[in-house]
Amino acid sequence: MLRAACLLVLAQGLLPGAEHWIKLASPHFRMYTTAGQGKAVDALRTFEEARDFFASTGPSKALPDLPVDIVAFDSEKQYEPYRTNRNSFAYYQRSRKCDYIVMQQLGRDYFPAAIHEYTHLFIEHLDLHLPLWLNEGLADVYSSLESRNNKLMVGTPPPGRLNALAALGPLDVRVLIDAGRDSKYYNKQDAMAQFYAQSWELAHMLLLSKNYRKGFPQFLNEISEGKPAAQVFADVYRKSLDDVNGDLRSYFSGPRIAVTLFDIHLDEKQLKPDVSEPSQFELDLVLADLLSTHPQTAAQAQARLEQLAAQAPRNPDVQESLAYAAWGRNDLQAARQHFDSAVEDGSKSARMLFNYAGLLHQMRAPPEQLIALLQQALVLAPNLYEARYDLVLEAVRANQCGTAITAGAPIKTVTHERAFSLFSSEAYCQWKLGNANDGRKLAEKARQYASTPEETKRMDDFLEQMNRVHPPQ
Q: Does residue 255 contact residue 273 with C-beta atoms inside 8 Å?
């Protein structure tokens, strides 16, 4: 699921020669901006600190596998052509090639919005499927990340949230958890302010209060599995929604708001970026890629990409972008041709090879073609674990069990959604290779992750057959 994350905090709309662009690179981010070096360095420090926080408090598999690109607008006027929501001056956008965060401006007043959007990126890479209130509430809580004497402080109220709670009043938890993207609470200004404020307060209580925080990891997992919030509150906390409402009404009645401090594990070398001037060609490609993620600007993006291809017909990055654009409009054959060109032109992008294999899978190509691409991707990026997972499955399809076992061996963690497929495939391969005991252990492990009666029966039948042919010793 991980894609090359390109976190674009776009500094200004690209008008060739109109602005002085600089490019800054830190260990985990690249930034394109016209907002000035001082603001850009401060912003990169904030992003690196946020990444360090998430790396130390969450599973590493949730972090993007490639550097995140950040770019940044310098005014509302320049941001306007890229705006997707009337009420927001920052947003997170994901595509097959990149993850984007688009921002109106840089500066300390905009850092909370930047970290809010970076939290969305982190949640998505965790493969969590959260309801709107919890997704936005957690992003708001983490948006308060702030350096304090070599510590990171989390939990202070985002600007305007306490005022909104006081002015607009509480929102019943039942209304909050039912609000979706098409409701007035996500589209009308006052209702939206109330929704965000209440989402922040509830997420803050779950994450940081002494009565809720211990159960929060279980709460997060269960609600991500799609269970109704009322059921999860009852299962995890033994509380009804009326109980939660009562706790929420009194949560901020005391003199203090709970905050938490975390250590920072960064040195100054990680916080000192390299600064250069990007070429106009590079900037044009960055913004064309961003435009291609929105249906309303896809045609404009296509025209820009074709112009870039005319300037540099053997550039693999442009061919890759054209492939994603074609894929986005469901022209699979054109996408395949552009991916072929990118490979022929010398692309060294493991992510591109992985995505090309995904396209071929969608086109029902023979597994041998996918295996070759996935193996090339893993030569370039051995830790690209989605490629390893896909290689296991494709190798099983091709009856190449040795390849499947070799590919899967380095995988140490796997998402719940992928666990059954991975372990059942490896169990089959170990059995086929004559390793019955290893196959039995993997089949029993797969059975634990079965999500349907059919999957459970499949493993029961497999274990019965294995035990009959190769009794446990």
A: no
Decide if 196 contacts 203 (C-beta within 8 A): no
Provide the pLDDT for residue 273. Answer: 92
How many angstroms separate the CA atoms of 418 and 46, rounded? 33
Say which residues have a Cβ less than 8 Å from residue 267's Cβ, sequence separation at least 6.
none
- In order of 74, 373, 455, the CA distances from 396 in angstroms are 51, 16, 17
* Domain shared by 177 and 248, yes or no: yes
User: pLDDT averaged over the chain?
Assistant: 89
The answer to whether residues 121 and 184 belong to one domain is no
Task: Identify the band that residue 64 occupies on the pLDDT scale cut at 50, 70 and 90.
Answer: low
The 10s digit of each residue's pLDDT in 146-165 is: 888 778 899 999 888 989 88
CB atoms within 10 A of CB 20: 10
Cβ atoms of residues 140 and 154 within 8 Å: no
Q: Are 52 and 46 in contact (CB under 8 A)?
A: no
- Checking if the pLDDT of 277 tops 80, the result is yes
What are the structure tokens assigned to 198, written together?
Answer: 């209440």
For residues 432 and 427, what is the distance between their CA atoms, to the nearest angstrom?
9
Q: Are 32 and 116 part of one and the same domain?
A: yes
DSSP string, 286-301: HHHHHHTTSGGGHHHH
Does any domain span residue 141?
Answer: no
C-alpha span between 163 and 144 (Å, rounded): 16
Number of folded domains in the chain? 2
pLDDT in tens, 67-111: 888 888 888 888 888 888 776 788 888 888 888 888 889 988 888
In terms of domains, do 249 and 273 share one?
no
Whether 118 and 1 share a structural domain: yes
46 shares its domain with 112? yes
Is the residue at 350 inside a domain?
no
Q: Which amino acid is at 38?
A: G
In a domain, 344, yes or no: no
pLDDT digits (tens, 9 = 90+) for 384-413: 999 999 999 999 999 999 999 999 999 988
| Stated length of the chain | 473
- In this structure, the number of other CB atoms found within 10 A of the CB of residue 36 comes to 16
Minimum mean pLDDT among 14-18, 197-201, 382-386: which range? 14-18
Domain that holds residue 166: 157-258
Residue 15 in this model has a pLDDT that exceeds 70: no
Under a CB-based contact definition with an 8 Å cutoff, are residues 236 and 246 in contact? no
Distance CA 35, CA 10 (A): 10
